[in-house]
Amino acid sequence: MSNPAEKPEVVQLPAEPISAPSASSRRAASQRVREARDKLTSTSGTRPAFDAELLRQYAQTRLSASYVVLLLVVATGVLFGLWMQPIPAAAWTAGMICLHGAMIRSCRRFLAEPASPAATRTWRTRFVVLDLLYGLCWMAILIHPVLDMVTESLMMFLMLLVIAVSSMLAANLPIAALAATAPVAVAMALSFAMSGSLDNYILAGLALAAEGYFVLLAHRLHSSTFATLEARAEKDALIGELEQAKAISDEARHRAESANVAKSRFLAQMSHELRTPLNAILGFSEVMKSEIFGAHAVPVYKEYSADIHNSGVHLLNLINEILDLSRIEAGRYELNEEAVSLVGIVADCHHLMKLRASSRGITIHEVFEHAMPRLWADERAIRQVVLNLLSNSIKFTPQGGEIWLKAGWTASGGQYLSVKDSGPGIPEDEIPVVLASFGQGSNSIKSAEQGAGLGLPIAKNLIDLHGGTFTLKSKLRIGTEVIVTFPPERVMSALAPLSEDAPPLQPESAMVPDEKRRPRHKPIMSAGTGS
Q1: Of the four listed, 21, 227, 309, 385, which is most buried by Cβ atoms within 10 Å?
Q2: Three-state SS string across 2-16, please?
């Protein structure tokens, strides 16, 4: 009997985490898709919006230089009228003026119409045809047989002038610039080459070289304009994205704030609703625990009553913390400010927590600066801050540990409070967690005395209401220190004496008339004189 085939072992490779594309990669991908779509719908290989903008700049350039072109045409017609018959020169001048008028009229109509892809293609073809006719008219006058008497240098100068002007005017539309200059340059090159002399061959080459140079210059100008338009479009797109992101962020922030306020109001309302039955539970459980109306038939009931009372006290403290936090977050916590002694409050809290610390073998040291002035603060809030910090230190400090309570002056003239323990410490990445509402670190989860995670957030918010700072420093296996500072504006220092003289008890204006009314008597004899 043959053995069954062994089943091959399949090893599953760990799946690589799929990273979400970043905002820059998404923007680049969308830009590539947009460019590909625009190239398919464009006649020049660019975006349709750029085609319309380039045509608009072309038309504006034509309109702004219309008088210059008209002056060039009239001056050329008058000059050529002196070298050949006036009638052909006048006819050429009239035809050029009509062609120039048609060009100006077309530019104005294009600028007046709304832009659309179909209209852009039509006007582009129309402008190319008009520029081609423009170049053919210049070619006709420059290669006229009657102008053989004109020197080649003058003809070369006129050709360069016509090509330069046409290239600059049609730089935003390279195909139109080529249509306006190529007939003139090619015709002049052929005219020079057909003469047969070496000088004319050189002029023919210079004519073609000049045509290539101005075509290249027009292309560079077009590329520069296109890059400017592209940069402006990119800037507008980025501004639009930023505004959209800002609007989305503001809307999300408003929703989060509304939800937070609604949560705080709900917690405050529920806390008030829970206090009424909880007070009844505490009262009756205390009566049963104290056996006011008689001893229990079963002694275990007394222990159960004590457990019920202790659980109710814990729940009441938790409700009070939730209520305080919700009032702080909702902005409805009002400080009852008065002159308080920071050292006195810390000493009282130490006295309250001393028995609990002693039961765990924890030693609390006090390091206070004496003769410190009072603070203008809320005594209940400061007391709650000190009790929260001290109870946390006692909770997480192991047996036989030490806690240091410090109070003194800050460098800026304010006052500070420091609570430092020798506990296990808090990892650096968990510090923001423990400072958040209902946040608990890993040590708190492992501890037998778990809390609700509201002590530190409430203390931090109460210090923020006083305009102070709340700093938490911790190192693993070394300990944790919380430093609370109060600004100098809350320190009630003794006022310095006034440098100015005190005002008179009676105004001088009221004293002067009395002196004037007082009669002055001349003494009869001066003491110590012989007069």
Answers
A1: 385
A2: CCCCCCCCCCCCCCC
Segment 11-37, tens digit of pLDDT: 444 444 444 455 566 666 666 655 555
Tell me whether residue 17 is in a domain.
Answer: no
Rg of the chain over Cα atoms, rounded to whole angstroms, equals 48
Nearest to residue 370, comparing CAs of 337, 394, 332, 344? 344
Domain co-membership, 199 together with 90: yes
Beta bridge partners of residue 376, listed in sequence order: 339
pLDDT at 304: 86
| Separation in Å, CA 83 to CA 74, 152, 185 | 15, 14, 22
- Following CA atoms 387, 390, 392, 394 in sequence, which dihedral angle do they give, to the nearest 10 degrees? -130
Q: Residue 89 domain-assigned? A: yes
Question: Which is nearest to 394 in space by CA: 316, 449, 312?
Answer: 449
Half-sphere exposure of 37 (CA within 13 A, CB side): 7
- Asked which of 245, 260, 286 is the last residue of a domain, the reply is 245
Q: What sign does the dihedral 275-277-278-279 (CA atoms) show?
A: positive
| Sheet-wide strand order for 469-475 | 363-368, 402-409, 415-421, 479-486, 469-475
Cα–Cα distances (Å) from 399 to 386, 402, 445, in that order, read 21, 9, 18
Q: Mind listing the pLDDT tens digit for each residue in 90-110?
A: 888 898 899 989 999 999 998
The range of the structural domain enclosing residue 415 comes to 338-490
pLDDT tens-digit readout, 37-58: 555 444 455 556 678 888 888 8
512, part of any domain: no
Two structure tokens written together for 174 = 């390279």
Q: Where are the beta strands (DSSP E) in 54-120?
A: none
Per-range mean pLDDT, top range of 49-58, 368-377, 500-509: 368-377
Q: Provide the number of structural domains found in the chain.
A: 2
The residue among 445 and 210 whose pLDDT is bigger is 210
Task: With 0.70 as the threshold, say if the pTM is over it.
Answer: no
Contact 335, 375 (CB under 8 A): no
Domain boundary among 226, 245, 264: 245
Residue 403's SS3 state is: strand
Inter-axis angle of helices 174-193 and 117-142, nearest 10: 20
Q: Domain containing 459 — which CATH number? A: 3.30.565.10
- Is residue 227 situated within a structural domain? yes
Q: Give the Cα separation of 430 and 284 in Å (integer).
A: 41
Residue type at position 492: M
What is the SS3 assignment for 297? Answer: coil
What is the Cα–Cα distance from 427 to 349, expressed in whole angstroms? 28
Q: What is the pLDDT of residues 277-294, one digit of tens each?
A: 888 888 888 888 888 888
Q: Which residues pair with 482 in a beta bridge?
A: 419, 472
SS3 content of the chain, % helix, strand, coil (to 5): 65, 10, 25
Dihedral over alpha carbons 524, 526, 530, 531 (to 10 degrees): -50
